[in-house]
Write a structure and sequence with these properties.
Length: 494
């Protein structure tokens, strides 16, 4: 159905309407739990476990519009799969701020991305008390379900009910109020077993990165901090067996408009094309030196993967030509997509013997949210899955799923356009599968035609054939950020 619609989009037309896209950013105040009954196709019986997703659930607080979706309260969705059936739940994370604002019926906090409290700049000046909104990612590790937000510690949820259990310090590993990124990586094989690797960034006029590593039981096995010069805006990291890799983007930060209450913190970040982007390699083990390599100015939110090859490290990342400043009086719902640079997949070859970086573009189509088979994290890999724009050029909302074969350059592509909008794909390996792409790709897509969200299940070997199964949810989930899949199925006890 949607493939036929797609063919009606000619190159000179937009593949979407702004009104459709905007509706996917309406607040979703409902919370429910139900067996999904409205299904096209069959759920593969071998698909067992739980897909968790996180993202902003509210785009307003009692009618006060948020300035940026990244300021929205975290709402977690879970879809549990067993025996060819699927059970859906969604719950807001009961953060201290969410509970207080729900009672007060108005914003009580400034958002990092520019949402201000009512009352003008005087009401906001020198207020550095941010709300830990727990909205960026969700992982299950060491028997704990953790909602992540990069500037503070995680919130722990009950995986059966999604009820919030409180802030989580991971057995004392994270000091109270310390940053703990929303982008942990799982090293699939560190001395024979998987390991969770994460970082915390304290950004200022100089910055500190703390590396954390946890074993399968959730016990802290490595923790060390390194200072790096200058302000850093770092959202994600890549890992190899020996390094954590960060991009220190070419930006500068002027804190004064923020301190004075004129702007949100993120609105004080400005892209600086005169600065290089620095690639920072911190050794994961031991006290070896931090390596810093410089490359062309660009802005990176997300890395796909990295691996070591002799004297080189190969790093695949989604890069923007520049970072558009978040403007204080702008409305994100009115963004002019075409005026902004698309995010594209780049490969950087970091030569550790002579310090040079060689960059090449791998995919020029606008894309974001790169994922891969978890067994290949930190290793040479063949397939990357991305949320992608419908049109091959220019910047646009994500409406498609793109699988890219990095060995042959072959693309396997499916678009939900014109009325569907995609996000981060999640790759789930088939139990007992051998091929890197033997498994399923799960995409939670906004279906504007029905104003609800669908979970599309693709056979990872046949993306262009379209979803093998589509689960229609009973209402929409606002465009989310990140999620994960765990092979654990949590019985809803019904
Ligand atoms: Co992210």
């Amino acid at each position: 159905m949607q493939t036929q619609d797609r063919d009606r989009v000619t190159p000179n037309q937009l593949s979407y309407t702004r009104e459709d896209w905007q509706r996917g950013y309406r607040s979703q105040p409902q919370e429910s739990s139900y067996w999904i009954e409205d299904i096209e196709g069959n759920i593969p019986v071998e698909l067992e476990g739980t897909l968790f997703r996180n993202g902003p659930g509210l785009l307003d607080i009692n009618g006060y519009a948020l300035h940026h979706p990244f300021d929205g309260d975290g709402m977690v969705c879970a879809i549990g799969f067993k025996n060819g059936r699927a059970y859906f739940q969604n719950r807001f994370v009961r953060t201290e701020g969410f509970v207080a604002e729900r009672q007060a019926k108005k914003p009580l906090y400034r958002g990092v991305f520019g949402t201000q409290k009512p009352g003008g700049w005087l009401a906001n000046a020198f207020d550095l008390n941010f709300k830990n909104i727990a909205n960026t990612n969700i992982i299950y590790w060491g028997d704990k379900l953790l909602a992540l937000w990069e500037a503070a510690e995680p919130h722990r949820l009950d995986p059966v009910s999604l009820n919030t259990l409180g802030l989580e310090d991971l057995n004392g590993a994270i000091a109270s109020g310390s940053p703990f990124s929303a982008h942990p990586r799982v090293d699939p094989n560190c001395n024979g077993e998987p390991r969770l690797v994460n970082f915390g960034l304290k950004a200022g006029m100089s910055s500190t990165i703390t590396i954390y590593e946890f074993d399968l039981q959730g016990k802290l096995v490595e923790k060390h901090s390194r200072a790096i010069a200058g302000f850093a805006f770092i959202h994600d990291m890549a890992i190899t067996p020996n390094y954590c890799i960060f991009s220190q983007n070419a930006v500068k930060f002027n804190p004064f408009p923020f301190l004075l209450g004129w702007r949100g913190a993120a609105e004080c970040i400005q892209f600086d094309p005169k600065q290089p982007t620095k690639l920072i390699l911190i050794p994961r083990h031991g006290k070896g030196e931090v390596k810093i390599l410089e490359t062309d100015p660009c802005f990176i939110f997300h890395h796909a993967n990295a691996w070591e090859a002799g004297d080189e490290i190969i790093l695949d990342s989604i890069a923007y030509e520049y970072f558009p400043t978040v403007e204080p009086n702008s409305d994100f719902r009115e963004v002019d997509f075409g005026s902004l640079p698309p995010s594209q997949l780049w490969r950087s070859r970091l030569n550790l013997s002579n310090g040079t970086v060689d960059r090449q573009i791998l995919e020029s189509r606008g894309c974001e949210f790169p994922v891969l088979n978890g067994d290949r994290v930190g290793r040479n890999y063949r397939y990357v899955y991305l949320g992608a724009a419908h049109q091959p050029t220019g910047n646009a909302p994500l409406q498609a799923l793109l699988k890219l074969d990095l060995e042959t350059g072959e693309e396997d592509f499916y678009s939900f356009a014109p009325r569907g909008f995609s996000g981060e794909p999640i790759f789930v390996p088939r139990p007992g599968g051998v091929d890197e792409d033997d498994g399923w790709v799960l995409v939670l897509a906004y279906n504007a035609a029905q104003h609800r969200s669908d979970l599309a299940i693709f056979d990872a070997k046949k993306v262009s054939q379209g979803p093998m199964t589509t689960l229609h949810l009973s209402y929409h989930i606002p465009y989310g950020l990140h999620g994960s899949f765990t092979p654990h199925y949590f019985d809803p006890k019904m």
